[in-house]
Amino acid sequence: MMLSGFFRLGVWQNFFRAWRGGYSGNLEGEGFTLGGVYVVGAGRQGVLLEHREKEFGDKVSLPSVLEAAEKIKPQAS
């Protein structure tokens, strides 16, 4: 996102939401890499949940992570 991420309204909304919620980071690091969350099942189940940040501060839904984790089936030996 580089500089364009700085001017996006959603980025600022996410920043203020985190700030009001008491989150404080160290603000060290590159700062230009977006993250993501994957829930991967055992064996051939593959990816059960994929969430990629579209802008800084874009959070994954915790209930969807838990729902995907409950779908993981133990791999037969």
Brief rundown of the structure:
The protein is of the alpha+beta class and 77 residues long. The chain has helices at 9-20, 62-70, and strands at 36-40, 47-52.
Features:
alpha+beta; two-stranded antiparallel sheet; 2 helices; 2 strands; about 15% strand
Helix/strand layout:
Layout: H1 9-20, E1 36-40, E2 47-52, H2 62-70
Explain what the structure shows.
The chain has 77 residues and is an alpha+beta fold. The protein has one domain. Helix content is 27%, strand content 14%. The protein has helices at residues 9-20, 62-70; strands at residues 36-40, 47-52. It has a two-stranded antiparallel sheet. β1 and β2 (47-52) form a beta hairpin. The protein is elongated.
Total DSSP E strands: 2
Overall mean pLDDT stands at 82
Strand order of the largest sheet: 1-2
The SS-based structural class is: alpha+beta
**Total discrete domains:** 1
Fraction of residues in β-strands:
5-15%
Low-confidence stretches: none
Oligomer: single chain
Order of helices and strands: HEEH
From the alpha carbons, calculate the radius of gyration and give it in angstroms.
16 Å
Main β-sheet: number of strands, strand sense, barrel status? 2 strands, antiparallel
Organism: Bombycilla garrulus (Bohemian waxwing)
Keywords: Antioxidant, Cytoplasm, Redox-active center
Pfam families: AhpC-TSA_2 (PF13911)
GO molecular function: antioxidant activity
